[in-house]
Design goal:
With 156 residues, the chain is mostly helical. It has one domain.
């Protein structure tokens, strides 16, 4: 299972880079991360059947720049799922079962296929939230400011 970002999301982020004179994203993973965090913060994701298709994958692994933070990303996803599903924090067994479904110590990403799908679904919804809030892709610096002020604050 691989990390996927929809063609629409890629075009959106590509348009930002084309308009920007102040910098660019270092990688598609940076774009994926911003989208995933927006979805996770909102506790919203698309359904599994709306996950971007296999032809939209961009990497089979967490890139080196994010490797040390992957567990924080996965933890945030798990917390979002616990809260989205309304699982009481006191229900340790259900939370443990959820974690075991999403994590896989034998996988090179340490995510199961289901965990990767869920993260991809958060990223897709996050992109849609970003696109709704920041309609016309601005320059990168303007995008990052709007992302912080409008996307992350709005969904709080």
């Amino acid at each position: 299972m691989s990390f996927r970002l929809s063609n629409e999301a890629r075009k959106y982020f590509r348009d930002i880079q084309e308009h920007s004179t102040t910098g660019e994203f270092d990688s598609v993973w940076d774009q994926y991360y911003l989208a995933a965090m927006a979805g996770i913060k909102a506790r919203q994701r698309v359904s599994d059947d709306q996950e971007p298709t296999g032809d939209q994958e961009f990497t089979p692994d967490v890139i080196e720049d994010y490797r040390d933070q992957r567990y924080e990303i996965y933890s945030a996803m798990i917390v979002a799922e616990v809260e989205r599903k309304g699982i009481p924090w006191s229900d340790k067994q259900k939370i443990r079962e959820l974690m075991l479904r999403f994590l896989d110590s034998t996988s090179h990403t340490n995510l199961s296929d289901e965990g990767t799908t869920v993260l991809n679904c958060y990223a897709e919804k996050g992109y849609r939230l970003i696109d709704d809030e920041i309609r016309s892709p601005p320059k990168l610096d303007e995008f990052l400011e709007s992302y912080h002020q409008d996307v992350l604050q709005e969904v709080a």
